Fold these 2 entries.
Entry 1:
Amino acid sequence: ANDSAYSNSNAGFLLNRTRRQNITNSTAYGNVFGIWLLDTNQSRLLNNSIHDNPYGILVTSNNNIVTQDNITRNSIYNNAQAGITMESQASYWCDAALYNNTIVGNYYGIWLPTGFFTANLTNNTIANSTVAGYQYDNYFGGNILLNRDTFQGNPKDIDFPSGGSAITLSI
């Protein structure tokens, strides 16, 4: 808690194959990934400031782990590629709940480039993204619940530009 990570050539904070770990009240900037959750389970990111990285928060599932991560009340801004990226490999699931985050001025607010997803996105503010607030590419299936999210100043609030199948989007 209350840590800073900056100017790292990889992740500012990396949780790798951990369970029930928290990053709270911390700042990550000038890294490749501000915070990277790799095959984590039930981890929590709470009240962090993540900015000026290529990727703000990266949540990945590579080893058949259902992540069940919670990302709450973070300020995520000015990341060159994406504020939050959720990605899974092959038949593995990426599962996360995103609540009350402010995601502003990123290329994509929330980006799901590939994989299977279960996501509960509630009360997030996604504003001034360069391409889209939510971008879904090459997904294989899953359920995404959007509940009271606010979109402002994005060219597209939600975009499905390429491939994918079997996804359920509830608004």
Entry 2:
Amino acid sequence: LACVVFALEDFGTAASVISAMVFHELGHFTAIGVTGGNVLNTSSSGVGAKIGYSSNGLSRRREILVYLAGPCAGAIVGMIGHYFGFIKFAQLSFFMSLLNLLPAMPFDGGCILASVLPYDKSRTVLVISGVCVGFVLCILGLYFVAVGKNFTVFASGIGVFACLVGKSSLQ
């Protein structure tokens, strides 16, 4: 997402997106440390960032806490940014937090959904959920494009579909 915004918007928007992503990931880093996990690696792509960590047998509840920490950190820094007048940063941070809570992979909401479902059912539910979320994001994104807004939501929908196709081709 950051790459799309970077290419299409002004520097302030790109800086805001990158800052929001950093705070989001810092939320995950903090939760991993607090719950007893160890960060193994980090990577980023056009869809976002990913932190590889060893859970050391974390309970399901603690694992969900790790997934929720990123969107919560984003919402908190968004509120702080809004208070200090960084409106674009606040809006992007809130948007990214909400987007990350959608129940589709690779978003945190999809990881939470996978954590609460039995393993044998999680793949089917995640594929159905991902198709639904991807479809809604694409339709909403096309509406935004039609009314002259940024097409980042559309790009997010395409990203969800790309992740679904990528995962299914690997299995």
